[in-house]
Design goal:
This protein is mainly α and about 110 residues long. It has helices at about 5-30, 35-40, 40-65, 70-90, 95-110. Helix content is about 85%, strand content about 0%. α1 crosses α4 and α1 crosses α5. The chain starts with a helix and ends with a helix.
Length: about 110
């Protein structure tokens, strides 16, 4: 492989990883409350790893099955990645925080 391809692939992989990281932090803080992701880096890492595995599975399937690697599939993939970027940019509302805290309190009481 030539160096230009390797550098481009590396930059793309890093870009996706960064998007997964930002989206994971945002989603975790949305569900568990502001600052939870920072206090639980292993959870953030698990979310990033799961996101990367899902993307890898999708890309592998799309490239392995010629019928899936059509324009519609590639457009769906582009839309998925665009949605991921938007999730990473937008800070979610805190509406889920209260219900999550209530569930956590109920779980504590029952244990």
């Amino acid at each position: 492989m030539d160096d230009d391809f390797d550098q481009g692939a590396g930059q793309t992989a890093f870009s996706y990883t960064f998007d997964f990281l930002v989206a994971a932090k945002s989603a975790i803080d949305h569900v568990f409350g502001e600052g939870y992701a920072e206090r639980n880096p292993m959870l953030v890492g698990a979310c990033v790893q799961a996101s990367a595995a899902n993307l890898n599975a999708f890309m592998t399937a799309a490239n392995s099955l010629p019928d899936l690697a059509d324009d519609d599939t590639m457009m769906a993939m582009d839309q998925f990645l665009n949605n991921l970027e938007e999730m990473a940019k937008e800070a979610p509302s805190g509406s889920a925080k209260k219900s999550t805290k209530k569930r956590a309190q109920k779980a504590k009481k029952s244990s």
